[in-house]
């Protein structure tokens, strides 16, 4: 049985997760530049919010972006493993479970930040679990 639909959806999810990981690491790199963040904090400071408050906000954002990037990389790796399991119809049930769990946990941990690639993984996982193999034909 061919698993082309599941593999294509998994690959689309893998590509989008790779883009998310790249964006996350790029954002974390920018937020780790102390001089740039200090200059931005001084420009964004208002009477209600001091520059140190803005820097604290940037520190919080940096942690969230790094979590986003790490979850994207882990999901990317699990997606590749699931696609390999689907290739050749080796372990479709295991691949479906991996895809569904990855999409649900990744979406919850990142508070819906990776919902688009997670939808691709979820659909591919459901397809992998729902598709039944054709019964073997008996020779009569």
Give the secondary structure arrangement, pairings included.
Blueprint: H1 4-31, H2 34-44, H3 51-86, H4 92-109, H5 115-130
Task: Quickly describe the structure.
Keywords: Membrane, Transmembrane, Transmembrane helix. This is DUF4064 domain-containing protein. The longest helix is centred in the middle third of the chain and has 36 residues, at 51-86.
Key words describing this protein structure:
140 residues; mainly alpha; 5 helices; DUF4064
**So what's the overall shape?**
rod-shaped
Mean pLDDT: 91
Give the total of domains: 1
What string, H for helix and E for strand, traces the elements in order?
HHHHH
Largest β-sheet summary: none
Q: What percentage of residues falls in helices of 4 or more residues?
A: over 70%
Low-confidence stretches: none
Give the helix/strand class. mainly alpha
Overall strand count: 0
Radius of gyration: 21 Å
Termini Cα gap: 23 Å
Specify the number of helices: 5
Give the amount of beta strand, in percent.
Answer: under 5%
Explain this structure to me?
- The chain is an all-alpha fold and 140 residues long.
- It has one domain (4-130).
- It has 5 helices and no strands.
- Helix 1 (4-31) packs antiparallel against helix 3, helix 2 crosses helix 3 and helix 3 packs antiparallel against helix 4 (92-109).
- The two termini are 23 Å apart.
- This is DUF4064 domain-containing protein.
- InterPro entries: DUF4064.
- The chain crosses the membrane at residues 7-31, 65-85, 97-130.
- Keywords: Membrane, Transmembrane, Transmembrane helix.
- Residues 2-108 form the DUF4064 domain.
């Amino acid at each position: 049985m061919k698993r082309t639909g599941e593999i294509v959806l998994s690959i689309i999810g893998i590509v989008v997760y790779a883009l998310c990981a790249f964006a996350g690491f790029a954002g974390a790199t920018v937020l780790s530049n102390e001089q740039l963040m200090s200059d931005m904090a001084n420009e964004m400071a208002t009477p209600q919010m001091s520059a140190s408050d803005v820097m604290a906000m940037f520190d919080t954002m940096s942690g969230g972006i790094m979590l986003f990037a790490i979850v994207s990389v882990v999901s990317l790796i699990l997606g590749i493993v699931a696609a390999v399991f689907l290739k050749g119809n080796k372990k479709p049930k295991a691949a479906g479970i991996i895809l569904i769990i990855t999409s649900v946990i990744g979406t919850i941990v990142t508070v819906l930040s990776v919902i688009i690639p997670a939808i691709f993984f979820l659909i591919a996982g459901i397809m992998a679990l729902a598709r039944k193999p054709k019964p073997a034909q008996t020779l009569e």
